[in-house]
Amino acid sequence: MHTAHLRGHDPAEHIAKLTSLNPDRIRIPDTDDGRRLRTSLRALRPAQNPHPQP
């Protein structure tokens, strides 16, 4: 998953697309695997502008 994230969005690659989505808005089953997937996707997302402009 990390490699797909580094390569960027490629419409032909579903994992790359998945890493570009907001993990809190994706329908992921509430299972152990689903929770691990959501946690991994959150770790790959860039910070939400930690230094906002004044």
Mean pLDDT: 74
Helix content: 40-55%
**Estimated radius of gyration:** 13 Å
N- to C-terminal distance: 35 Å
User: How many alpha or pi helices?
Assistant: 3
Largest sheet: none
Shape: globular
Measured by DSSP, the beta-strand proportion falls in under 5%
Spell the H/E element sequence.
HHH
Low-confidence stretches: none
Structural class: mainly alpha
Assembly type: single chain
Number of strands: 0
Task: Break the fold down into its secondary structure elements and pairings.
Blueprint: H1 2-7, H2 14-20, H3 32-44
Provide tags for this entry:
mainly alpha; 54 residues; single chain; 48% helix
Question: Can you walk through the features of this model?
Answer:
- This protein is mainly α.
- It has helices at 2-7, 14-20, 32-44.
What would a concise description of this structure say?
With 54 residues, the chain is mostly helical.
